[in-house]
Amino acid sequence: MFMGEYRHNVDEKGRMIIPAKFREELGQSFVVTRGLDKCLFVYPYEEWNKLEEQLKTLPFTKKDARAFTRFFFSGASECELDKQGRVNLAAPLRQYAQIEKECVVIGVSNRVEVWSQSMWEHYVGESEESLAEISENLTDFDL
């Protein structure tokens, strides 16, 4: 399980350190793709394969299913850690998530998310204001 929040920088070549606590579970190679809320999703192959199987079950006759599948897979990139524990984030992924220098890497159960620091701070600020309402909407989950 991935959890925690870490702040890092992306260098001029687009490389970013993956937190040491995440490296073992991610493995030497993994998948990075466009995520929701303008962040990047990082999946170990085991989780990526599960997600792929679920997305295959979506009916291709439905416009929303086709759009979501295209969005998710067209942005996907296979990545590997270098000897320093860094990953090279492809330019289109960095542009999508508006990551220029400072970023935040968070663990979210079965995946890692990478956010630009400014987008993360904005998201957290908005979420904190409506957390009570969000939790009320999740009452069916017995949280």
TrEMBL record:
Keyword Repeat assigned to the entry: answer is yes
Keyword Cytoplasm among UniProt keywords: yes
SpoVT-AbrB domain residues: 5-47, 76-119
Its main localization is cytoplasm
PROSITE patterns registered for this protein in UniProt: SPOVT_ABRB
Q: Which UniProt keywords apply?
A: Cytoplasm, DNA-binding, Repeat, Transcription, Transcription regulation
The record's note on quaternary structure and interaction partners says: Forms oligomers.
According to its UniProt record, which protein family does this protein belong to?
A: Belongs to the MraZ family.
**Protein's name according to its UniProt entry:** Transcriptional regulator MraZ
Q: Which organism is it from?
A: Alkalicoccobacillus gibsonii
Gene that this sequence comes from: mraZ
